[in-house]
Amino acid sequence: SSTDAAAPDRSVAMPAHAGSPLPRSQALPATAVADPMGGWSLEIIDDYAHHPTEIRLTLAAARARAHGRAVWAVLQPHTYSRFAALLDGFATAFADADRVYVTDIYAARETDDLGRHPMDLVARLAGPAAVGYVPWPELVDRLAVDVRDALGGRVPAQAGGVLLLTLGAGTITTVGPRLLAALREETPR
């Protein structure tokens, strides 16, 4: 990445998130995905936030860090009981996100005895320009298409880049590396 303010930021990275209770991050080289596309940036941050207050604070920090880039949040709710108990809090936690993806609940040690579904949250979310449920098996492919569209300039408001946060305490930690691998596979060399 160039430190010159006039040069385009061509970074693709998963940096450590200093405010995370349990930071999980991985720095990845930028060349394969960014260079063919031109001067856009994709930054992926994997954060442990899985409570509405943590999510709200993490997204506020991301918005401050974004410097005009779009802020996308990808939530994997953690346990059915926590999701049901905190549903109203989740509904207001995403005000600083431009786009929100909600995927399947990470059950951990639980079974779905409460009849809750991620669509319950999608129906209640207020604020983000785009909100949607994406089933876990389809998540990486959907993100790859949306990132490619946004960073390829087909979504003008996001042509400057995307700061994408994966939020949760389950298997969501695998999404960033899998997304970057998918984008690299699609990028002509």
From TrEMBL:
Residues covered by the Mur ligase C-terminal domain: 42-134
Gene3D superfamilies the record matches: Mur ligase, C-terminal domain
PANTHER family according to UniProt: UDP-N-ACETYLMURAMATE--L-ALANINE LIGASE, UDP-N-ACETYLMURAMATE--L-ALANINE LIGASE-RELATED
Region (Disordered): 1-26
GO molecular function: acid-amino acid ligase activity
Organism from which the protein derives: Candidatus Frankia alpina
Record-given protein name: Mur ligase C-terminal domain-containing protein
Domain of life of the source: Bacteria
